Amino acid sequence: MNDLTNGQAAARRVVLRATNLTKDLPLGAVVVHAVRGVDMDVYEGEMVGIVGPSGSGKSTLLGLIGGLDAPTTGRIEIDGVDVTNMSEGKLTEVRNEKIGFVFQFFNLIPTLTALENVMLPIQFARKPKFNPEKRARELLELLGLGDRMKHRPMELSGGQQQRVAIARALANNPPLLLADEPTGNLDSEASAVVLQALRDVWQETGTTIVLVTHNLELARQMERVLHLVDGRIVREEKGAA
Ligand SMILES: Nc1ncnc2c1ncn2[C@@H]1O[C@H](COP(=O)(O)OP(=O)(O)OP(=O)(O)O)[C@@H](O)[C@H]1O
Ligand SMILES: [Mg+2]
Q: What is the widest separation between alpha-carbon atoms in the chain?
C-alpha cells in the first residue's frame, strides 16, 4: 500500500478475503460438505454476485463470510481484520461495525416503525458514529422511503420492507453489505425496485456489496459474477454493472 509506483494495486483495497474456506455440516450419520475450498477476494467498492443452484452452498458461504458461522477450515479477513478465530464477543462487535446483512425474509422488528428499525443498530453500536435518528432519516430518504418513516412493517409492502432492511443494514456505514436472495420473496415488480435501490446505494455510498442468488439474470446485473457449484467457485464472469 505504501509503494507509490504500484498505484493500481494500492487503489484496490481488499474488503473481504476468503482463503481455502470449507464448511462441513453434520447431517445425521453423514457429513455434508457444504463449502469445499473457496478462495475469493472482494475489492472495496465492488458489487459482486454469487450465483448457484439450490443447495450449492450460497447461504452457508455467506454465513461464513459474515461471521454468522465458523468455517471448518480456512481463513476470513474482513476489512483487513482476521476474524477466523475471534471470540464471539469480539466477532459480534466486528459484525455490527463492518457488515450489513440483508436476508430474503426482511426480519424487521414488527412493533417498531421503519425509522426505529433503522435506528436500532446505531443505538446498539459500542461507539456510535451517527446520530441515530438523523442517520436513519437520511438512509430512508436514500431508499425512497421518506414518506414511510412512521409505518410499521405490517403497513409496508414487501419491497418497502426490504428497502427498510437495506437501510438498517447500512445504519452503521459498514464497509461490506451482504445480501442473501434479497428479492427471493418479492414479485418481479418489487424485485426490480429493490434491485434498483441496491444499485442506488452502491452508487451513492460506494459500499461494497456481495449478493447471493440462484437467479442468473439478477446476478449478471452485478459487476462481477462468481459461479458456485457444489460448494466450489468454478467460474467467474463480468456482469453488466
Ligand atoms: N444446518 C444444516 N445441517 C446440515 N446440512 C445443511 C445445513 N444447512 C445447509 N445444509 C446443506 O448444505 C448444502 C448447502 O446449503 P445452502 O443452504 O448453503 O445452499 P444454498 O445454495 O443457499 O441453497 P438455496 O438456494 O436453496 O438457498 C445443502 O446440501 C444443504 O442441504
Ligand atoms: Mg440459501
A: 55
Residue 67 CA to ligand 1 center (angstroms) comes to: 17
Q: Looking at the CA of residue 57, tell me the nearest atom of ligand 1.
A: 18
- The single residue listed with the C-alpha cell 457429513 is 31
How many residues appear in the chain? Answer: 241
Task: Tell me whether strands 73-78 and 14-27 are parallel, antiparallel or unpaired.
Answer: antiparallel
Q: How does pLDDT run across 52-70, given as a tens digit for each residue?
A: 999 999 999 999 999 999 9
Question: Model pTM greater than 0.70?
Answer: yes
Dist. CA 55 → ligand 1 center (Å): 5
Top mutation candidate among 27, 51, 218 for ligand 1, by most atoms within 8 Å of CB: 27
User: What pLDDT does residue 10 have?
Assistant: 56
Single-letter residue type at 50 = I
Whole-number average pLDDT of the chain: 93
CA 156–ligand 1 middle distance (angstroms): 30
Q: How many CB atoms lie within 10 A of CB 29?
A: 5
The 10s digit of each residue's pLDDT in 124-170 is 888 889 999 999 999 999 999 999 999 999 999 999 999 999 999 99
The CATH number of domain 12-238, selected from 3.40.190.10, 3.40.50.300, 3.90.79.10, 2.30.42.10? 3.40.50.300
Question: Does any ligand 1 atom lie closer than 6 A to the CB of residue 55?
Answer: yes
